[in-house]
Amino acid sequence: MDARTLRIGNASGFYGDRFSAFREMLEGGPLDVLTGDYLAELTMLILGRDRLKNPEGGYARTFLRQLEQTLGLALEKKVRIVANAGGLNPAGLANDLRVLATKLGLSVRVAHVEGDDLVGRADEFGFGESLTANAYLGAWGIAACLDAGADIVVTGRVTDASLVVGPAASHFGWKRDDWDRLAGAMVAGHVLECGAQATGGNFAFFGELDARRPGFPLAEVFADGSSIITKHPGTGGAVTVDTVKAQLVYEIAGARYAGPDATARFDTIAIESAGTDRVRLSGVRGEPPPPDVKVCLNRLGGFRSEASFILVGLDIEEKAALVRAQLDATLKPRPAEVLYTLARTDHADAATEEQASATLRVAVKDADAKVVGRSFSGAVVELALASYPGFFLPALPGDGSPFGVYTPAFIDARKVPHVAVLPDGKRLDVAPTDASRALEAVAVPPLPAPPSAGPVRRVPLGRVALARSGDKGGDANIGVWVRTDEAWRWLVHALTEEHLRTLLPETRELVIHRHVLPNLRALNFVVERLLGEGVSSSTRFDAQGKALGEWLRARHVDVPESLL
């Protein structure tokens, strides 16, 4: 291991990511640490339901199966593994890893981090009835486990970036108040956390690279907190300034990106190409973390179901109105929530039946499973011979499925235990970072002068801008950026909050926050409550907001011809 550089890879961006990624990363080139991010707000709900069925469960079982195939290789190559796959039961996963190692005839030092699970203290914090309640811990428990010689560290709900910050802090001996270094590692961790999204996956200009099977990313982290984002040679995709920017603007808010270890100033990130498939991130300024930590709360919200009606040919609106009138009259008892959405994807004088088709989607939610189960599906199916001409369903509605409601909360960091359980079983309490929050105001740079008037052409925004979008609970984030200073001068004046409302009518009645990041030539929009009460309960067509950015790029705007 080069003491001046720490090579940290990623092999998972979510629970269900490419199973073979662990082996690909271990075989593809040198690494010091391999991380895996398995947890999202929706995943915590899934694991909560798993724990209800089996108190010994509650962790990402995929991780255990991946290590069954690769643990020996990792030990042989002296690659340490850090993953948040412990979910709601990191101690259980750590124990099962020891059992696995014994079965494989391997000697492995396993440690875990716990303390984030607050569901047993829900009344104390006023959380109400919760299925899961998990605080976002930071990196210092991971660092303590690595300092004690752990080969594998599994955690519960730590921040995604902590999987990188912890190994870097341990390797370089950083202190709690090394804000700039910690913030730099946070930025690298934010880039790595979603796996192949940093190497060309889900990339707006995907035609510029081989996007068929992107490799997974790694970061070369340096002692000053700067890093180079890259990937193993010969793997697919690409690492470019834009693929990295796509992840930098993903699911953030403004200039301050706060975590329990530090606050990273995204308005100070310097990004530049450092060669083929190499992008340098440097200059990141850090500040102390906030005094409170975020808590992810999930509760069971009820049951849901949906049905889709295919409407073909003429009189689409009238056919949809007939279905709605028929269902409204026959849904008894009526579900607490009934949402009709008509997608006019039909074309006049279409050459194929599918091109002549529109879809009416009906989503229902209720506290009683029976109301959205047989009662709803029966009402839908009974219309088969008694509704609009050409009636057919692509699939029959089934029983109601449970959904959860996500709520964020914030509590005093000093009230959250953070425990590193070392390989020898010793328990080490990790105190929260004690730091003043007397912060300077973020200096808002003056906007560049708008481009001089000239001829414009009405074209899709995506001709000149890239975007990526996603979810944060019930809010949606849309990051938009451009490649040149001239395009930036136009974008920052053209794409205002009001213009966004015009381009995306679904946002018209919602609160929108626009954040300007000139160093990235980027805008980030946070649209409050577009996704309702979170992914699991959302009845929106794109429940996670993953394609909002592509919808925005497809909308037509007046673009200066000089940019085209």
Written account of the structure:
There is one protein chain. The protein has 564 residues and is of the alpha+beta class. Helix content is 26%, strand content 26%. The model has no long low-confidence stretch (mean pLDDT 95). Helix 1 packs parallel to helix 3. It has an 11-stranded mixed sheet with strand order 11-12-8-7-1-2-3-6-4-18-19, with helices on both faces. Strands 5, 14, 15, 16 and 17 form a 5-stranded antiparallel sheet that branches.
Parts with pLDDT < 50 across at least 5 consecutive residues:
none
Mean pLDDT level: 95
* Strand element count: 25
Q: Order the strands across the largest sheet as they lie in space.
A: 11-12-8-7-1-2-3-6-4-18-19
Question: Tell me, what's the shape?
Answer: globular
- Secondary-structure-based class equals alpha+beta
Rg to the nearest angstrom? 25 Å
C-alpha end-to-end distance: 48 Å
What proportion strand?
25-35%
Oligomerization state: single chain
- Helix amount, in percent? 25-40%
Main beta-sheet annotation: 11 strands, mixed
Question: Which helices and strands occur, and which strands form pairs?
Answer:
Blueprint: E1 5-10, H1 21-28, E2 33-36, H2 41-53, H3 61-76, E3 80-83, H4 90-104, E4 110-114, H5 122-125, E5 132-135, H6 140-147, E6 152-155, H7 162-172, H8 179-192, E7 217-222, E8 227-231, H9 241-248, E9 256-258, E10 263-265, E11 270-273, E12 279-282, E13 285-287, E14 292-312, H10 316-330, E15 337-343, E16 357-366, H11 374-381, E17 401-412, E18 419-421, E19 427-429, E20 456-460, E21 466-472, E22 475-481, H12 485-494, H13 497-503, E23 512-517, E24 522-527, H14 548-554, E25 556-560
Helix pairs in contact: 1-3, 3-4, 6-7, 7-8, 8-9
